[in-house]
Amino acid sequence: MSWALPLPVAIPLLAAALLVVIDHVTSRRVHAAIAIAATAAATGFSVLVLVAAEGHVVLHWFGGWHPGGGVALGIAFAADPLGAGMAALAGVLSLFALVYSWTYMREESGSFDVLVLTFTGAMAGFALTGDIFNMFVWFELMGVSAYALAGFKVRELGPLQGAVNFAITNTLAAYMILTGIALLYARTGALNLAQIGRDLAGHPPDRLVVVSLTLLFAGLLVKAAIVPFHFWLADAHASAPAPVCVLFSGVMVELGIFFVARLYWTVFEGPLHVHAVPMRDVLVGLGVLTMLVGAFMCFLQRHLKRLLAYSTIAHAGLMLAGIALLDPKSLAGVADLVAAHAFLKGGLFLACGLVLRQLRHIDELRLRGLGRQTPATGVLWFAGAVGLLGVPYVGSFAGHALIDDGGIAGGYGWLPTVAMVATAVCSGAMLRAGARVFLGWGAADDPILSDEPEEKAPAREASVRLMTGVTALMIALGLIASVVPGLVQRTETGAQRFADRAAYTARVLHGTPVPLPPRPPVIVESSTAASLEYGVGALLVALAVAALGLWHGRLPRAVGARAGRFLGPPVAILRAGHSGIVGDYLLWITAGTVVIGGVWAFTLAQS
Amino acid sequence: MNMLAFAVAAWIFCVGVYGAIVSRNLIHLALCLTVTQSSTYVLLLAIGYKHHAGAPIFKGVKLGTPAVDPVVQSLTLTDIVVSVTVIALVLALALDVHEESGTIDPDELTGMSG
Amino acid sequence: MRDRHVVRGLLALPAVGGLGALLAWGFSGLPPFGDFHGFYGQLLNAIVLPQRHTTNVVTAIVFDYRGFDTMGEEFILFAAVVGVVILLRENNAGMTRAAQADFVRSDAIRFFGVPILGLVVLVGLWLAAFGLVTPGGGFQGGVAIASGIVVLYLTVGYRHWHRLGDERRLDPFEGIGAGAYVAVGIAALIAGAPFLHNLLGPGTPGTLFSGGSMSILNWAVAIEVAAANLVLYTEFLQRLVAPKELER
Description:
The complex is a heterotrimer.
Chain A: H1 7-21, H2 28-53, E1 58-61, E2 76-79, H3 81-104, H4 111-128, H5 132-150, H6 157-188, H7 193-200, H8 207-223, H9 231-239, H10 242-272, H11 277-299, H12 304-324, H13 328-359, H14 375-387, H15 397-409, H16 415-439, H17 464-479, H18 487-498, H19 501-510, H20 529-551, H21 557-577, H22 582-603
Antiparallel strand pairs in A: 1-2
Helix pairs in contact in A: 1-2, 1-4, 2-3, 2-4, 3-4, 3-10, 3-13, 3-17, 4-5, 4-10, 5-6, 6-7, 6-8, 6-9, 6-22, 7-10, 7-19, 8-10, 8-22, 9-12, 10-12, 10-13, 11-12, 11-16, 12-13, 12-15, 12-16, 13-14, 13-15, 13-17, 13-18, 14-16, 14-17, 15-20, 16-20
Chain B: H1 4-22, H2 26-48, H3 70-101
Helix pairs in contact in B: 1-2, 2-3
Chain C: H1 4-27, H2 39-52, H3 57-65, H4 67-92, H5 107-129, H6 138-156, H7 158-164, H8 167-190, H9 213-247
């Protein structure tokens, strides 16, 4: 299958170049058709690779430069099941986004398709690469395409500002990553992940390794929107057109987290290994902080896309905590969560596009009751919100359950409770917004919620039927993600392989095929009682949160005043922190990096 | 003298970041980012430097003559292109922001708060 | 909050100071300056000439050993240009037709402009052509070619420049340059070799025909870089110059 490995990258890029060549002679429709065909082909090849990667890691040495004597001469793609799965997920989501855009983005120029194609190719490259500098290249291509897509709707100040903040923060992140790469190259004289990992292994982590770890992780966590590096995300999502948000929330953010895991398990596991506890604690801590801040901010939004964006931040926190447990089982949970979340959150963003198309607004309060005319969109919205809760056997349940188990096993017994509350608050906010928009419940005004600039609605010619179909398909796929037979077992074996540095190194540098253990027969695994309880608990908390959001004005005055005194200051501080000013965001990134690096300097470095 | 080049790289990185944080002008901010990026050039090239060694070009030079590390040079080349393009994009955004709002001071652009 | 940036400046001091300390501490773990023994680089210095018959090791890395990075890099440039065009062109649309009355006042510029244009473009072509032998390459050459053509704007004014910089004529070159790189890669796949494998063999050392497929990639990059830079110049000029010419 080695020959298929470059194609998920090469086909979209070639198609993008082709579209620019024929830009002035063909119609928008032809462009969109070429883009859809190319993305479908790329996705197909990703799936082929994924199937092959379940046997053993699939390799492709570009230019035919195979390693000699354990030294890499060129660049390799090394696809394991999780990496190939991320590439396939990126392809599938791009496909949904492009089909949805067939009429939704019709007014825009053909450059939209070009940028989605380069974005898709870059994400696939990022997921598949086994070379640290090559990762940087795809990181930047992903970034450049994404900044342009976020600022796509010209002539509106809001979108431009979101794109500016996004571009500047992520550019600083890229330079931190590059500095980290330079340090690793100076130490090992290698750029291949497996080779760097092999050369670092056996030595305790010293100052160079710790600083390089800090810079690389901090840079990736900016892309992953982890507190305090997350500020750009809500701005970018509020700016970008709904189909682009699908890609941002569904897979770009997750790729940042994915590569943190990739770097740990290929490079830093060697030197850290027994010393990894402080790293784990810091990352779990950041994950938990991110969940709480994301959930809190989510509840405060009335701009529907911004509300969803903050819920993505909360979920990113859970994913980071999941990989930070450094346990293959919770890693598998993260993979399941990523899959379910991608479809559900993607579907919810597409539902936002539908709301904008049908009701011409994106603001919860302005939309109050208007959604009664569009029951189908309402059903999709509620289904997506419930799917993200982790209710037993629905949507993101499998991912939640595995991460919960991993947390309990890893000595973080409180993690499942925090995760339950955070996701429940997010889904509760979505249910509140849904009830207000589609049922007309709740107060007509709510001073708690932040006012945001509105978004230009798409052309009335955009086909509601097509858009609803795509949205419904995405949400349906997300809802069944936990009960797809065998998916959980497959991700668990994939995660075991992902975390097996020795096998990866042997395969990449010496070509030794290390086959996976035979897959156990497909069984419907019984979930632990604890995860069932957490799922039901999340539903109850979410309903309570939604009711509170809708009718908090009816609370007895004394209760309201006390709650205001208690919650007012943190709300004000959080609001002031999310200032929309890019200098503040850069300061947060710098300070966050220094704090993380400082903690690790004192706890991780052995010399 | 031993570590001067690395110290310079660290200094340039910090100067650029500080400038970007306090910047009152998006174009100035974009240039501060290029300053930060130049730190990566200095760092990469300094890492690959070898005393008493020539350029990694063997035209008219015997193979086996000591030469500095060629990999960091090719990485720097890639790095330069990346920098140029990102800056072009940020400048284009700054132009549009100016057109829409009449200012390029990030502190006055607060439409995205909360 | 007028003082917001002052507060931020004060808070930034400890933060950036901490970053400097962190970097300095980490950099002090680097191998001593001038004493680097990275095996990858040493190995390439030794094997590139025998294996690839190119005397410029850096170019061989850029277009062959790590040629895949360069493909990504080309597309970074490509995507950024598409992005800039989206951001600027749509807003430019109304302005270009009005910008007719521009002219160059200096005879000296008109007199020397054309020869300089020729010279700079020639240097660019030379840099690109000999990139596999001596310092230079598609990137450097492409940038030089583009800046040579910009001299045309200085010499004959915006109107003629704009005719040359017509997007319908320029855009395809950008796509061709970027697409050709991927096409060379896929051609190798179709021939049953790994992506971007050098199908054409190494050629004669020290000549224009050294490096095989590398020379095609080199020219693809030269075209892409030149076209991309010209599109960027055109869009920014249109945005900045056209309205000013109008005011005169």
